[in-house]
Write a structure and sequence with these properties.
The protein is of the alpha/beta class. The chain has helices at 11-23, 30-43, 54-64, 82-89, 108-113, 134-144, 195-204, 213-219, 238-248, 251-269, 301-310, 326-329, 338-346, 358-372; strands spanning 47-51, 72-76, 93-97, 119-122, 147-151, 159-160, 163-164, 171-175, 188-192, 275-276, 284-285, 291-295, 316-317, 347-350. It contains 14 helices and 14 strands. Helix 1 (11-23) packs antiparallel against helix 9 (238-248) and helix 2 (30-43) runs parallel beside helix 9. The protein binds pyridoxal-5'-phosphate. The site of pyridoxal-5'-phosphate has 14 residues, from helix 3 and helix 4.
């Protein structure tokens, strides 16, 4: 079986997790802090705040950006459902706009056109590992007095020019699910340059407590914390933090291998009229969460996927159109986003992971060409 992905983890991660267990400190502590510091340093952010996953990171970032009931947040529909769910969790309404047909990322001009007096935040998504045009989204947000929360779940290591994702927006949220750049099993991280927001994020990820367990223990006093605001339990464990700190050291290798294999897919599939390969705008660095092709074959996508599954090759539909999922369809009846809907119907993800062999990749390409008919 050739899986859609395989996390790149070794004995070092197992040992780091075991050491956290043996230490007796398993909940959020010094190892999470170490992971946060490594990630902040890597992306060039002032603060990094770890969370239990990216969905909770997005929820907290929206709250820190001031989002609440009655507000609107503008985002693409071409994304994983969690993008919109986090907005609903914050009490606000997602306003879906269409994407660019080539990059599959949100069109900044459509975000601007959708701004109303209720808009609080613009939320671009760096889809499949390619950063959205965040500089353009930020310029629009500044003109209208709005904040930008970037959903960078699959995009740790992506860059726009010299700037790494995580250093651009007011808040950037990453995921460490096993399909992402690096993994901690489950996990998330928010980066920001805003000192007050970072302090609030640290409190509300941990019930709203005025001080953390780690700080209380380190103080050596009998200080008692206070709860002045509503918080959540969205903490990462130190077992995950320990794994994340090791994974940070592997990030560049993982992404280098993924980019090498993506370039090889490009070369093997180039010129085939039955599909198109990913478009990467000049100056962008892609993380290739998966390799996303656009099908132009008359054969239905389901038949192509079934043929490949029969040969032991996992594939996935590209990305969903959130506004067509029943929960959201009822909430935005009649909404049509033609570019999103076409992309959701015609895209297909092929296996791509750092340890994929060229022989495995050749099998994927051969079977794909056969399945395309
Ligand atoms: C674009 C996007 N946003 C949010 C998420 C949610 O991440 P998590 O599973 O860490 O909550 C994902 C996960 O697949 C995603 O792809």
């Amino acid at each position: 079986m050739i899986p859609i992905t395989r996390p790149f983890v070794r004995e070092e991660e197992a040992e780091a997790a075991a050491n956290a267990v043996r230490s007796g400190w398993l909940s959020q502590g010094a190892r999470v802090q170490e992971f946060e510091a490594a990630l902040a340093d890597y992306v060039g952010a002032k603060h990094a705040i770890a969370t239990s996953n990216c969905t909770t990171a997005l929820h907290l970032a929206l709250l820190a950006a001031g989002v609440g009931p009655g507000d609107e947040v503008i985002c693409p529909s071409f994304s994983f459902i969690a993008t919109a769910n986090a907005i609903v969790h914050a009490g606000a309404t997602p306003v879906f706009v269409d994407i660019d047909a080539e990059t599959y990322n949100v069109q900044p001009a459509l975000m601007e056109a959708a701004i109303t007096p209720r808009t609080k935040v613009l939320m671009p998504v760096d889809q499949i590992g390619l950063a959205a045009d965040v500089p353009a989204v930020l310029a629009i947000a500044r003109d209208h007095g709005l904040k930008v929360v970037e959903d960078a779940a699959p995009s740790l290591g992506a860059a726009v020019g010299e700037a790494r994702v995580g250093s651009l927006a007011d808040f950037t949220c990453f995921s460490f699910h096993p399909r992402k750049s690096i993994t901690t099993g489950e996990g998330g991280m928010i980066t920001t340059a805003d000192d007050a927001a970072a302090a609030k994020l640290r409190r509300i990820r941990s019930h709203g407590a005025s001080t953390s367990d780690l700080a209380r223990h380190a103080s050596g006093t009998t200080e008692i914390e206070e709860y002045r605001e509503l918080g959540y339990n969205y903490r990462m464990t130190d077992i995950q933090g320990a794994i994340g700190a090791v994974q940070m050291g592997r990030l560049e290798h993982i992404l280098g291998e993924r980019r090498r294999l993506a370039a090889r897919y490009n070369a093997l599939l180039k010129g085939d009229p039955r599909l198109s390969t990913p478009v990467v705008p000049a100056g962008h660095r892609h993380t290739y969460q998966s390799y996303c092709i656009r099908l132009k074959s008359p054969r239905p996508r389901a038949a192509i996927m079934a043929d490949m599954a029969a040969k032991g090759i996992a594939t996935r539909r590209g990305v969903m159109a959130i506004h067509l999922e029943p929960y959201y369809r009822e909430r935005c009846p009649g909404l049509r986003l033609p570019v999103t809907e076409a992309a959701a119907a015609e895209t297909l993800l092929l296996p791509l992971f750092a340890e994929m062999t060229e022989a495995e990749q050749d099998v994927v390409v051969d079977e794909l060409k056969r399945a395309l008919g």
